[in-house]
Amino acid sequence: MTDTIVRTLSAPDAAAAAGAAAAAVAATSREDRARWLEAVADALDAAAEDLVPIATAESRLAEARLTGEVARTTGQLRLFAGVLRDAGYLEVIIDHAVPDATPPQPDLRRMLVPTGPVAVYSASNFPFAFSVAGGDTASALAAGNPVVVKAHSGHPELSRRTAAVVAEALAGAGAPEGTFGLIEGTQAGRDLIQHPAITSGAFTGSLHGGRALFDLASGRPTPIPFYAELGSINPVVVTAQAVQQNGEGLASGLVGSFTLGAGQLCTKPGVVLVPAEAGFEELVAEAMGEVTAAPLLNSRIVEGFGQGIGSLAEHPAVELVAGSRSAADAEAPAPLVLVTSAAEVVADPEALLAECFGPVTLLIRYASLADLESALAAVEGSLTGTIHAAESEDVSALTALLAPRVGRLLFGGWPTGVAVTWSQHHGGPWPATTSVHTSVGATAIRRFLRPLTFQDAPESVLPDELKESNPLGVPRRVDGKLEV
Amino acid sequence: MTDTIVRTLSAPDAAAAAGAAAAAVAATSREDRARWLEAVADALDAAAEDLVPIATAESRLAEARLTGEVARTTGQLRLFAGVLRDAGYLEVIIDHAVPDATPPQPDLRRMLVPTGPVAVYSASNFPFAFSVAGGDTASALAAGNPVVVKAHSGHPELSRRTAAVVAEALAGAGAPEGTFGLIEGTQAGRDLIQHPAITSGAFTGSLHGGRALFDLASGRPTPIPFYAELGSINPVVVTAQAVQQNGEGLASGLVGSFTLGAGQLCTKPGVVLVPAEAGFEELVAEAMGEVTAAPLLNSRIVEGFGQGIGSLAEHPAVELVAGSRSAADAEAPAPLVLVTSAAEVVADPEALLAECFGPVTLLIRYASLADLESALAAVEGSLTGTIHAAESEDVSALTALLAPRVGRLLFGGWPTGVAVTWSQHHGGPWPATTSVHTSVGATAIRRFLRPLTFQDAPESVLPDELKESNPLGVPRRVDGKLEV
């Protein structure tokens, strides 16, 4: 474990340090930055034994889950090292001059370059993977930008210790001073996003908190993008044939998914459209026998869940399918399955389709495709949508219904569990995210890059990636043709 | 010329029609949409003889310029037909399942899909290329989205006639009803961007008007991106050696560029950093003998230029180099060259570095690299930056100074004239644009697309572009490896 002490900075100091470092960080090579990310990953792996107990104490999450999350986090850092070496993310495009065109066309060479300092806001529910050294930090550093992380108040000590590991690894790997900083506190977070040196924000958290920061970012004299992942109820559609074919498996899969991490995942299946007469509710009630309560992350989540579950479970159109509500278990509430109908959802979507962060899911009975259509039309943008159908069933109508509302569309399986790959998309129409970019997977790097086109530049000032001879062998499009 | 009458719609009607058409437009094939764009291009070429005189009358721009602009516009439409057939813009990424990974990794297939209806706001200074059938419309349609254009009040009749040509060509090519609509009026424009069916806005125009619409788009209950190209002073740096080597050529090039289109181009060189003692001012004054005054676009531009030039030319730190100001020529003001010093710019950047839309440029004398650095530090984000140096000169320091502030960096030549190519970038740090995306060139299509990832989808529901066998031969990344 490192002995480095990370001084938590004031927002202006942290932003100014990042601003001062931006040119030096941008000037580093892709290979240099790949080594930084690997150094951070190695250091985190080495520190895992020390960090996990702190995380357990602060987040109340289980040790096995947190140990797995460290591996996910370091895997994420290493993925971006691979993205850097691949160089496809630079989107290099070269058009040679066409002197006899009307008007004559100059030589134009485009690539993506870093935007500058990025403000990263940690989430409470992934104290490693969406926190100090998480995907936003990894992708922003990979892009060539300094990062200032706003620690989450739910795991302050873990944030400081992780920041120390990151800072020491970066310094050891030769990253410029100011490449990485940490701030704490709600007001500091607000100050950070309004600081002139900051060029974008990245956030995972609540709709309320994210919207407030989004409004500050958009309202600046110099507005900046605020890439926020906010809220998602992740609709699941189960067909009658699917229940017939594998009802028990689906019921236990659903229970496992909506209670994973005590239901505190942004991809939790929050509403499940179930055929009215197929007996699925009974199967879910049976499967609920297997689960036990787990503690929620912190008192703010406990309070929010209490309020959310109150208005949902006491709604006149909602019945209890399984689980119990008792004042005694507020810190570790028992998982709950509720049920209503498509018609009720259409009548009162605001109350029935609000995200409720914690171990609850709402079944919605449907009797027809028309029911499904009207209920799904009331669902706001989500990170995911899931279809459970029988193997032979035609799912094209369901696909067409769900695709416009989600960023990831699953056929079978459950939305919790987000693979960190080249093709992953973790985003969706508002309020799932505020932008058309992902916060998980290789293409998350696109958020922190901007195009720069060189016109008629002498070879001597061109970045190696744009030189005619392609000395670094980057994939590129030349005169309209892709070259790999 | 078409006899179709385009009924200008109310904003809610136009948005609702676009919303109703969105699914049908999104479901069309790339080849279908390529044919739509070509049909629109062919129809505009055929109608050019009728449209150009209307444009001349409404915009006061010269016939030759407008005829060339029609060709640029139809070339733009055809470029996007090529972008569609190329299919690289879909960013297809496939990761095959890895069942024995921990946790098991599903089959994931990502591509970009249309976002939905786009609101396009026309500009006054390019009545064809940045108007009803301009680049924003072309790229939004290419992406698979319905478009509602807000006509510019500077050329209402041309807008209606162009819209009729576009609507008839689209209908003839089989585009669904509601694919294209036209609205008029400032309030209608404000209503449009706030309509729930609209998923993004695209705008070229003034900082004031663009910021107002950006604020409305960001402030919606469901915020949407507003891709605006706003203001740019396009700094040019001329070295002493460049003046020695080719002073006369540079002087006449500058005069030609800043007076092109009566100085009403967003890429007009608005400030030129010139060596204090090199005699460049005299050469520019000589070159000014060649130019004549041209009428400004409309009374709002006349008024704005009058105000801007008033505060600039009467600034105590500014001297006149060439040209004259007289109340008589307000409608077609004589081109003006002014001069100040780097120190004065640093002392009062707000007054001296404000964009002044019309035939004026401000020379800024510098005596040292430190002067250059401090003056450029005061320049806000610009679409372009230009370096004029002697052939043997090392321009790496100037490149490093300009690159962070601009979207296109020119070595020699002049920023006016924006080639429509794969590699073009027409954008830059605020206030040049509000986003990291371009509004000109092939990659402008990225603004109107969002990723969608299919997880474990049966082959039968996958779009052809994501099918394992790649029946359409699209470029893609498979298991991390690019395939062309």
Structure description:
2 copies of one chain form a homodimer. With 484 residues, chain A is of the alpha/beta class. Chain A folds into 2 domains: 11-230 and 435-483, Aldehyde Dehydrogenase, Chain A, domain 1 (3-Layer(aba) Sandwich), CATH 3.40.605.10; 236-411, Aldehyde Dehydrogenase, Chain A, domain 2 (3-Layer(aba) Sandwich), CATH 3.40.309.10. Chain A is 38% helix and 17% strand. In chain A, the strands form 3 sheets. Chain A has a 7-stranded mixed sheet with strand order 10-11-12-9-8-13-14, sandwiched between helices. In chain A, strands 15-2-1-16-17 form a 5-stranded mixed sheet, with no helix packed on it. The radius of gyration of chain A is 24 Å and the shape is globular. The two termini of chain A are 42 Å apart. Strand 14 (406-411) of chain A pairs parallel with strand 15 (449-455) of chain B, so a sheet runs across the interface.
Task: Please tell me the overall pLDDT of chain A.
Answer: 96
Q: How many domains in all of chain A?
A: 2
Can you tell me the overall shape of chain A? globular
The chain pair with the largest interface is: A-B, 78 and 79 residues
Share in β-strands of chain A = 15-25%
Question: What is the oligomer described by this structure?
Answer: homodimer
Question: What Rg of chain A, in angstroms, do the CA atoms define?
Answer: 24 Å
Q: In this structure, how is the largest beta sheet of chain A organized? A: 7 strands, mixed
Within CATH, the superfamily of the largest domain in chain A carries the name Aldehyde Dehydrogenase, Chain A, domain 1
Give the spatial strand order of the biggest sheet of chain A: 10-11-12-9-8-13-14
With helices defined by DSSP (H or I, 4 residues minimum), what is the helix count of chain A?
Answer: 14
Which class of the largest domain in chain A in CATH terms? Alpha Beta
CATH level 3 topology of the largest domain in chain A: Aldehyde Dehydrogenase, Chain A, domain 1
Helical content of chain A (DSSP H or I, runs of 4+): 25-40%
